[in-house]
Amino acid sequence: MSALLARLRRDHTAIRLFLQALEAKGAALDQGEAVDYAQVRDLTANLRSAGANHHPCEHSVLALLQVRAPQAAAKMADMPEDHERLDRERDAVDAAMGPTLVAERGAQTDAARDGALGRRVSAAIDDLVADQRDHMAREEADFFPAAERHLTLADWRLAEAFCARYPAAPHEHDEEDAAPKVRRGTNGAAGD
């Protein structure tokens, strides 16, 4: 297996951990529990960062696969549009929370009393988590095996050179609860 394909698979593992943590926040909202909306925003920021670095690499592999095995690539021809849709769904989670809820930590107290808000955020989380998991399952079932089967060593080297500018998704996580660690930038915001 190429180093890039191994990285793409590890990225999916990291993304699954973010989705698991986000899903737990949605489940808490469904139960009427308070959640810290800033933590939800941190998770969507990490998904945004992971996608911004992961998707161009997948697109480069898809472009090479379209040359080497057009029929195999045809199964994933809609991948770029899927990625854009997932970006919109992730943004919908942030939009459902509104800008004021995550201005500071601890914003959950007042928001928890607003059941309509919790339902909106939970529904947006559910849509994102389900679609992201389905999308990754499709890539793992069709795209990754086709790329592994049809791309040459030179193809992989070309894709790896292109992807060198995009850092891998954070792969470390907290073993205690299997939640990924949120990466913070220089100003303390996730995903900087």
Pick out the low-confidence regions.
173-180, 182-192
Oligomeric state as shown: single chain
Structural class: mainly alpha
Globular, elongated, flat, extended or rod-shaped: what is the shape?
A: elongated
Gyration radius, in Å: 18 Å
Biggest pleated-sheet summary: 2 strands, antiparallel
Residue fraction in strands: under 5%
Number of strands: 2
Number of helices: 7
Distance between the termini: 31 Å
Order of strands across the biggest sheet? Answer: 1-2
Mean pLDDT: 85
What would you note in describing this structure?
The longest helix is centred in the last third of the chain and has 36 residues, at 115-150. Mean pLDDT is 85; it is low at 173-180 and 182-192. This protein has seven helices and two strands; from the N terminus they run αααααααββ. Helix 1 (3-30) runs antiparallel to helix 6 and helix 2 packs antiparallel against helix 4 (79-97). A hairpin with a 4-residue loop joins strand 1 and strand 2. The protein has a two-stranded antiparallel ribbon. 71% of the residues lie in helices and 2% in strands. The protein has helices at residues 3-30, 37-68, 70-74, 79-97, 108-112, 115-150, 153-163; strands spanning 173-174, 179-180. It has 192 residues and is an all-alpha fold.
SSE map:
Blueprint: H1 3-30, H2 37-68, H3 70-74, H4 79-97, H5 108-112, H6 115-150, H7 153-163, E1 173-174, E2 179-180
Antiparallel strand pairs: 1-2
Helix pairs in contact: 1-2, 1-6, 2-4, 2-6, 2-7, 4-6
